[in-house]
Structure formats: C-alpha cells, structure tokens
Amino acid sequence: MEKVQSYDVVVVGGGAAGIAAAVGAAQAGAACLLVERNGSLGGQATNANVASYCGFFTHSNPPQQIVRGVGQQVLELLHELGAYDGYRLSSVQNAIVTLDEEALKYALDLLVQRYSGLKVLLHCRMISAQTSPDGSIQSIHCVDDEGTYEFRAKAFVDASGDGNLAHLICTQNSGHIKN
C-alpha cells in the first residue's frame, strides 16, 4: 500500500543545489522533504568522484570569496572537521575547494540535521509525477526498500541534476511545464 505524505516543499536531488534549496526552505519555516536516489547527500562530489567545488571565488589575484549562504555553512562544517583550510589554485588559476568525499558526506549530514523541518530520504527513487489538469505538479511517486510513497507539496524543486522531474512532467503534459 502506498504511503501518502504532505510537505510545503519537496526537493528531488541531494547534491549542492538540492541541499541549498532544502535548507533554504527549512530556514524559511517550510516543512521540506529532500529525496535522494543515492546512499549519501552531495551529488557528484560524493557519488561520482568530482572532488572539488568551483565558483565560491572570483578569478582574480587574489581570489575573493563571493558565495556565502548554505555553501558557507558547508565550508564552516568542513573546517570544523579539519577538512577545509582555504582554497587551492587549479592548473588554470581558478580558486577551488578541494573535497574529502567522506568528510563532505558527514558535513552534509550534520547540516541537514540542524533543521527540524527538513526530512531526508536516501536510497529513494522518484518514479512518476501527478499533475493537475492545468499542468501544475500535485505529487510525486517514489520507491525505496520499504515500499512506494506519494509525496504531495505546495512546491517542487527539481535539483536532480538530470532534470528528472521536469522530464516526467514534460512527457506527461506534451512538453508544457506550468509549475
């Protein structure tokens, strides 16, 4: 039997963008669900051996940090864990944050645990979506080892990295996305 749960916001994808969206929603007081198909948060940085973050700093001499917010919270947690002590310059002189994927997994787990309104489901795969007649998203259907779920929400964020939710909705609505 499918379990039905409702949230203010459902985020599909637990990489950097999905974590930022989910934490931002939780900080704003929303009841939020973050659905990740892999066994850890972090996206490509923890699941595909992409061991650096780019874009925190300008391409200048010296580089200046221009990204803060949720990303800054991650950097602070990594620093507390002894896994970040500043940027490194790449071969093309870009300032990058090199990552230890296990430390990053732990830091991201610590980060999402700070927010009581944020629930995380790992090893959970989105398999379909329901839309209303006007094309807006009403719910998504997911599966994990414990069964199938229907997650309803006022807002959905596709941070899957592959556009999985957008693809499902486009396929179902002949290419028109309204939500």
Quick overview of this protein structure:
The protein is of the alpha/beta class and 179 residues long. The protein has helices spanning 16-27, 44-47, 69-80, 101-113, 164-172, and strands spanning 3-12, 32-35, 52-54, 88-89, 95-98, 118-121, 125-131, 137-144, 147-158.
Structure explained in plain terms:
The protein has helices at residues 16-27, 44-47, 69-80, 101-113, 164-172, and strands spanning 3-12, 32-35, 52-54, 88-89, 95-98, 118-121, 125-131, 137-144, 147-158. The radius of gyration is 18 Å and the shape is elongated. The chain has a six-stranded mixed beta sheet. It has a three-stranded antiparallel beta sheet with strand order 3-5-4, with no helix packed on it. 34% of the residues are buried. The chain has one domain: FAD/NAD(P)-binding domain, CATH 3.50.50.60. The mean pLDDT is 93. The longest helix has 13 residues, at 101-113. A hairpin with a 5-residue loop joins β4 and β5 (95-98). Helix content is 28%, strand content 30%. It has five helices and nine strands. α3 crosses α4 (101-113). The protein is α/β, with parallel strands linked by helices. Keywords: 4Fe-4S, Iron, Iron-sulfur, Metal-binding, Oxidoreductase. GO terms for molecular function: 4 iron, 4 sulfur cluster binding; metal ion binding; oxidoreductase activity. This is FAD-dependent oxidoreductase.
